[in-house]
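Sequence in, structure out. First:
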Amino acid sequence: MGKIYADIALVTSVTTTHATCPENTDGSATILVGGGTVPYAYTWSSGDSVVTATGLAAGTYTVSVTDAAGCSITATATIIVLDIIAPTLACPGNIFLCGADLINYTLPVISDNCNLNASVPTLVSGQASGTAFDDGVTTQVFSAADAAGNTATCSFTITIFPIPDILVDSVQNDLGSSSSGRIYVTAVGGVGPYSFVWEKDGVFFSNEEDLTGLQTGNYRLVITDANGCGGALAPVFIDNIVGTANPLAQISIRVWPNPAQTGIWVKMNDLTVFSAEMLNAQGRLVQTITPADLADFLSVEYLPNGVYYLKVVDAKGKPWVMTWVKGN
């Protein structure tokens, strides 16, 4: 009796190595074959003709296996992107500015093992570059994600220090070259202690806050607070008054009642007002006042209790300041 041969069917299984990035072609697929009659011939849709197809991007590939007896079988291999490396996000360093308004900062820099396709970081909290920041500390938090959904975050702070201001309490001209001129000022806003640098006619004169014993000349003050923020006073001219018994008699300004509850009156003598404004104890503007308003009763009911400054600038640009108190 003759021998009977039983054909064993071809069987396959596929193993894969996935691509590391959407743009990478570092995936591979291996076809494992059993049964049939060796040797086997391989035809991949990628063009490979060996057991393992290499240089594969993400996608689906087919492979046809044919044995020596002409029997064939087809299998598929799916290559996906398997990116488990998160991007890195580098924020700029903390920013410290004096009295800035519109702040422009450098956006964080994203880097990744895969192509980011011009991806930009996302602002999670804080304010956009080019917008107005208030005094104080604002924390900027940014995030970024790659195509695989891996994420990274970073943060930095923007600190805005208030700019100190200089209020002129009083100015007295010299009388008959007797060195009786004086300038009294108050530094407000910013953070004390303050340093003072006075110049007379462009030359250093004093580091005192208030000046006395002055003769005629232009006096200019620059102050610097503990944060390194500065403010400057417009030049104050001390004149030499000849034949006047009281060098303060020419100009006067008074606020009453003081303290005030509902409103104040402002009385001025021989003063042409160019502009006026109300400042709080930190030197921040709380109200802009027109020269015409100064002739009427000024309502202050809306202001919380505290110390305030009425700052009046005359037609020559010289500031005059009166201190008053809102309260019972």
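Second:
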Amino acid sequence: MHTPHGQTNLVMLAILAEPRTTDRPSPHQHPLARTRKSIPEYPNRKQRWLVKHETGQCGVGRMHLRRKYQDHSQCPRCGQTDETTQHIIQCQATSATTEWNIRITSLSNWLTKYRTNTSLHTAIRQRLQEWRNSSPRRGISGPRKIRETIERQDDIGWWSFLLGRVDKSFESCMDDHFLLKKLRNKGRPWLSNLITQLWDLQLQMWEHRNEIEHSDVTPAKLLQLDVLRTQATEELEAGCLSLQPTNKHLFEGEDKVANFNLMEMKQWLLEVHLAQDAANHEFIQKQRSLSRARTRAFMQDWLNTTRANQSEHDRTELPTTD
């Protein structure tokens, strides 16, 4: 697709406004979040990729076969025929699942960093995992408004969610949450940033797929692997004491890590860094909570002391005489 310079955003808006998805049609019309705010902040290179990804025109197996670039339509990771852009995200190959876990962890860290409602955060992760694995949808825990928001997105579809077609009620949920927490944040910019995070997740899955397809070993890649192995050795020597219990499994089997290929080493190091980020965020939050508790205790002691002194002063004060 070729457009004059500066016209990409108009093309994007036109494409994103028209439903092109394999999700089942919605029985109800739901207002969707506008991607107008997200698109200008997305780099032009990524915008061009997103247009192709959105319309299924990326260089996947289906399109390569249709355009006679190759004589098959197989996925380079799992070998399934008729590879589509949706399959890039749902591919069940071991390396694809590892990459998905990394990207969904990164999204989860973003949701935590931007003060997302805990019930909504959990529900988003749950539904995305169920969609990717084609698993039956389980019930959603949390307040009624959260459950209704997820049900509305169920009607629209979670492939649509990944593409940026997010129900507007997500914005309302976050507005209520920020108000309850007495934060100045607003639901609209949160939702706009969420959409770009979802696009980036898919771009990373696409780039992982391409790296597998073009994985010929070269001297440059061998040199890169040596550098990454040095980094991995440093991480293993530093240990995992500061990590959350759920992430300590990354440090089990040092011999296995030492024998990783380039892709596996990149994924392992990224998982370690994400786990460290999560641990650091948790530590900072605990320190802030502790600091607030100390401040409250100090103020309470000061107030009690002031009241006691005032009471003592009142008792010892001589009565006035006419």
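Remark: The chain has a mean pLDDT of 84.
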